[in-house]
Sequence to fold (153 residues):
Amino acid sequence: MRAQPAQWSKQLDARFLENAMDRHAMVARMGKLARKRSVHAELRAWGDTLAFTYAAEVKRIEGLLLLGYGRSHVPLALKVPHPLEKLKGTAFEQEFLRQMLLSHGAALAETKDCRSLAADTRLHKLCGDFVESQQREITTMGNWLCQWYQKCE
Fold:
């Protein structure tokens, strides 16, 4: 069982938003790579969706961070190269899906805490939206990894 934070604060809200911004910017970037480097048409199309949706989420988070906390943040994804940039085809797809599943799983745990403990009520809706979308995406990615590469869990 995960340990719950003793007290969620505005400071933790802002840190959550910065971390979420980093993750969402990375997913948008990875979506662009999926569009160009994937074998399966479904993943190429989904890459477009991820790139668009997660870039919009970065803007949503950025607005809340600035308006609610007076802070700005430059996502880490914009500062460093990504290891997936070296891969193509089936090697790319398998690593992309593996990394996305790991990232979404970790983010889901933190997001569930945010949904129930955030100090700012505006975060409750945002975190609820994240939980729903990440759970759907985890199911989709897990199914593809199983169907295409027989890596089933």
